[in-house]
Specification:
With about 300 residues, the chain is of the alpha/beta class. Helices cover about 35% and strands about 20% of the residues. The strands form four sheets. The chain has a three-stranded mixed sheet. Helix 3 crosses helix 8. The longest helix is centred in the middle third of the chain and has 14 residues.
């Protein structure tokens, strides 16, 4: 494995970023109950266990969307749709290595076990990593927000959204069926997709959360996208600073922003929390781990 270069994640460990609340449901729990838990706790996945409490799988919104697409009854047990086995790390593992595992395995979370008793004590997902990075960037003396107060001009080279965003914008039409929407999300492994009208104007967004709620409420999968889409489209400018865009996502409780160049309707990319985590950096090009003061 090639040696990793120094970046903001260097020197950080999983225990600093992980969330300690882990939602668990047994494998015989009905899908409908799992949707309630995911929405209540604002999470994208939960740990599934056997009847003795041993972790055996992960139930994500992607798995539930698959059940909706396949037409499974909403009272089917989680054992029928969960992904397995869950993947683990421990609190002392390097955060950079944990992120590398997530990327190489194509997964969005790891569960964290205490090495002394092998009990699950936390979970680590992309938003947790971004939240930690944002905290460091915001508190750093070179922070964009601090510099604005000190200086009239900012000489620090900072990341802009256009440097990090995914440049291709996929979309469905508002009169496409939910089945078509789910097919697009599955093919491209997206968490959400843009919805356009037949004049190609953006009019909404459909996320996996929207779809699992539609499943729970008995919406026919042949219904049109327009019925469940969220609007307006949350967006940011391509030249917007990375720090500002991340702040907007965190405080708006969204995982992605659609990126426009000059006019809001002229979308040129998508910027997600996953994109922010994958760059292994903070909000400016000069940001290195030596600036980060770790608690001892």
């Amino acid at each position: 494995m090639p040696k990793l270069g120094k970046n903001t994640l260097s020197g950080l460990i999983v225990g600093q970023a992980m969330r300690r609340q882990v939602i668990r449901l047994t494998q015989d729990t009905p899908i409908a109950n799992s949707i309630n838990a995911l929405i209540k706790y604002k999470i994208n996945a939960l740990l599934t266990t056997d009847l003795a409490g041993k972790p055996i799988g992960v139930l994500s919104k992607t798995d539930i969307m698959g059940a909706y697409y396949a037409g499974l009854p909403i009272d089917s047990p989680l054992a029928d749709i969960m992904s397995k086995p869950p993947l683990f790390c421990n609190p002392e593992n390097a955060l950079e290595k944990a992120l590398q595992i997530m990327r190489s395995k194509g997964i969005y979370r790891l569960y964290v076990t205490d090495p002394e008793n092998n009990q699950v004590v936390g979970a680590l997902a992309y938003p947790d990593i971004v939240g930690l990075l944002y905290q460091f960037c915001h508190d750093c003396e070179y922070s964009h927000f601090r510099q604005k107060k000190k200086l009239k001009t900012d000489s620090i080279k900072r990341f802009s959204v256009k440097e990090i965003m995914t440049k291709e914008v996929k979309a469905v039409f508002k009169d496409d069926s939910l089945l078509q929407v789910m097919e697009e999300l599955s093919v491209y492994r997206f968490g959400a997709i843009l919805v356009k009208d037949r004049e190609d104007a953006p009019c909404g967004v459909i996320s996996k959360t929207d779809l699992v709620l539609a499943y729970k409420h008995g919406v026919d999968s042949e219904a049109t996208a327009e019925i469940i889409m969220s609007s307006p489209v949350q967006s940011c400018g391509a030249d917007e600073l990375l720090e500002d865009a991340i702040k907007k996502m965190i405080f708006s409780d969204v995982h992605r922003l659609f990126v426009h160049q000059s006019k809001p309707d002229e979308l040129v990319g998508v910027f997600s929390l996953s994109d922010a985590a994958r760059i292994h950096s903070g909000s400016c090009h000069a940001c290195i781990s030596s600036r980060i003061k770790l608690e001892t």
